Every structure is written in C-alpha cells, then in structure tokens.
Amino acid sequence: MTTEASVEAETIECPLCSGAGKLKRTEVLDRLGVKDFARVAQLSAEEAFRLLLTKHKQDEQNVWLRFEAELAKRTSDIAQRHRDELHALTARTKELEAAAKVAEQQNALEIQHANRRVEDSLREAAELRERNQALEVEMSKVARVGKREEMDFAEEARAWAGICVSEKLPRNGDFILAYRDPSGAPLEPRMLVDNKDKTVVTESDIDKLVRDAKERSTPVAALVARDESQLRQTDRGARWGRKDGVWILRTTRQWLPRDLDVLRPLFDRMRVQGSDFLDKNAALAREVRRTFADLDRAS
After folding, report:
1. How far is it, in rounded angstroms, from Cα 256 to Cα 114?
2. Percent of the chain beyond pLDDT 70?
3. Where are the domains of the chain?
4. 235 with 251: CB under 8 angstroms?
5. Is the pTM of this model over 0.85?
C-alpha cells in the first residue's frame, strides 16, 4: 500500500496533455524550472555522507600510514640498536678472545718457566746431592785420617817418659795430657790436646780449643799439628800465649815432647802456687815464648 502511494506521488498526469502521457515528477519539475528540494537535500545528504565517508577513509588511511611509518621507524631503530649491540658484542667477544689468548699464552709461558725452574731445581738438587756425596766421601776420608792421626798420637805419647795420656775423648777435645809423678799417677794441672791434620790451622780452631778447655776447666791447652807447615806464621811467631783466660801451646807432633820438657817447671810451679801463677808472671811467659823460638830456629 505504501508502494502504491509512493508510485502515485512519483507519477502525475501532465496538465498539458490531460493525462495523455505520464512523466516523473522530477522531469515535470525540471521542465517547469523548479528544483526538487527534497531530492536536492537527499543528494546533498548522500554527497555529504560520501564526502564524510571518503574523509573518514582518508583519515583512516593516513592513520595507518602514520602507524606503518612509525612502525617502520621503530623497527628500523630496533634493528639499528640490535646491530649496534651485535657489533658491540662482537667487538667485546673479540676482545675477550684476544684476552683469553693472551692469558693462555701467559699461562703457557708461566708453566714453561715453572717447568724450567723445577728442572733447574732438580738439577741443582742433583748437583748438591752429588757434591754432598763427594763431601761425605771426603769427610769420611778426613775422619779416618783424623782418627788414625789421633790414635797414632796416643800410642806415641804413651811412650814418652813421665807423660800420661787419657783415652780418646768423646767431645771437647781429643785427649787429656798430664805429667806423672814417680808412682805413675797423673799430676795437676792437666792439658787439653786437640790434634789437627789439615792444610792450615785457622783461628776458628784456636777459638774452639779455648771453648773446649773452658768446658773441661783446664787452664792449659795444646793444638798439635802434624807438620810445621800446617801452622800459620802467627802461630809459629807466638807458640805460647794466653787467650780468653786459657794458655795455648801451638806445636807439632815433632816439637811436643821437647815443648813438654820446657813447660814442666812451669806446671810444677802452677801446681804449688795455683793456676794463676802464669797470669801473675807475664815476664816468665815471654821468656818461655822466646825459648820456644830459639829451639825452633835451632832445630
């Protein structure tokens, strides 16, 4: 029913032809020079809607374009940052690899140096062991020679008239020598004897003899070399002297029997007047020293 009303509204009888033909209202209005405002309004609304829709589409397209541009920019920034980080990581990795290589080389050098030091230490230890063995052999020879020298001295001294010799001492000297009375008993004061058979007598030998004499409380001690050449010039020039409270006789196996004959009167006086007799008679000590020098020159 609505459709029929719409059709009637659209189609009217032409007043000119008394309904002989049918024209649309828009055609009649166009022929009469009258605008169809309803149609114009409709078309204007449609055009406005079309323009609005076009603008909306353009705006939407512009938004998408800006979004895509922003996305591309951020993607590019992220990609660039990633490339920068990758480049930095690559450079850092190369630095670490170089540092690791240097550390490995240094470690290898240190290991090499350590191995060389160990080899040097082992070689030095082997050389020291060989030298120690050689020294032990030499010391063994010296000990055997020294022991034989001591035993030879003891056997020889026991054959001297009026002389008493002790057994070999375990420490602090070699023997205790004393004069004997007519009954054969040893007399005071006694003398500590230290035998030396070495290239040359040293001052340390004298110092040790003094310490040993003090340990045994003997006021007189004798350092007996095997040969005159083993005594120093200072020993031969002062064969009788006092050091640190102990009277020292520097002599040889050949000179000792003769020296004991010279010292016997002194020992007799010391036995009567005390062990400090010589300390109180410095002139007598000098005289004994000159006597030894004269006897050495005469022999």
Report:
1. 60
2. 80
3. 85-147, 160-298
4. no
5. no
